[in-house]
TrEMBL record:
Family listed: Belongs to the eukaryotic RPB7/RPC8 RNA polymerase subunit family.
Protein name stated in the entry: DNA-directed RNA polymerase subunit Rpo7
Subcellular location per the Swiss-Prot or TrEMBL entry: Cytoplasm
Purpose: DNA-dependent RNA polymerase (RNAP) catalyzes the transcription of DNA into RNA using the four ribonucleoside triphosphates as substrates.
Domain of life, per lineage: Archaea
Domain comment quoted from the record: Forms 2 domains with an elongated structure; Rpo4 packs into the hinge region between the 2 domains.
Organism, as annotated: Thermoproteus uzoniensis (strain 768-20)
């Protein structure tokens, strides 16, 4: 998975009530709340803010008792790439397809992309899909290997935050439920 370590820069606002506390701790808490768990078009999905160096001198704005300090910090990000082959665990299954956890994010696989079968049936009682001919089954908790077929960033309804949307397929050579891939490998001479 393409994880990246990125050096970033931003400003933090230090409230007068926090003036006695260590500057780096206060700034790091703010930066983590601002960045961790969020998606950005240029950065990808921010997994963690790892450390911050904060300028000792701050600026006071008229009418605001807080100080504003320049902070340089490291971000650990995950950037899903179109065409990348990933491993994941099926987290949920609905009639339309499955959600697969790939590292810190979820990807969607439409039921027609789960296996090389013309008819794939959904079993709501076991939250799994079954191939009509092969009787192969994939459902919640299964480990799979899939290829990312699309990555997009969309605005969430609540505000300006972006959500990453990932679509994937398990159709193709070397893709599928890991159990199936082991069976296939065992059949070769």
């Amino acid at each position: 998975m393409p994880f990246r370590l990125i050096e970033a820069e931003d400003y933090v606002r230090i409230n007068p009530s926090e003036f006695g506390k260590p500057l780096e701790d206060v700034a790091l808490a703010q930066l983590r709340a601002r960045y961790e768990g969020k998606s950005f078009r240029d950065l990808g999905f921010v997994v963690a803010v790892l450390g911050a160096k904060v300028a000792r001198e701050g600026v006071i704005l008229f009418g605001d008792g807080a100080t504003y300090h320049r902070a340089v910090f490291d971000l650990l990000t995950y950037v899903p790439l179109d065409g990348e082959v990933v491993y994941g665990i099926v987290e949920s299954a609905r009639e339309v397809g499955v959600m697969v956890r790939i590292g810190p994010v979820l990807g969607f696989i439409n039921k027609i992309h789960l296996m090389e079968e013309p008819n794939i049936l959904f079993d709501a009682s076991t939250k799994s899909f079954i191939g009509e001919r092969s009787k192969r089954k994939v459902g919640v908790g299964d480990m799979v290997r899939a290829r990312i077929t699309g990555v997009s960033y969309v605005a969430q309804k609540e505000g300006l935050d972006l959500a990453v949307r990932i679509t994937m397929t398990m159709r193709g050579p070397g893709l599928g439920k890991l159990e199936w891939l082991k069976e296939k490998k065992g059949k070769k001479p």
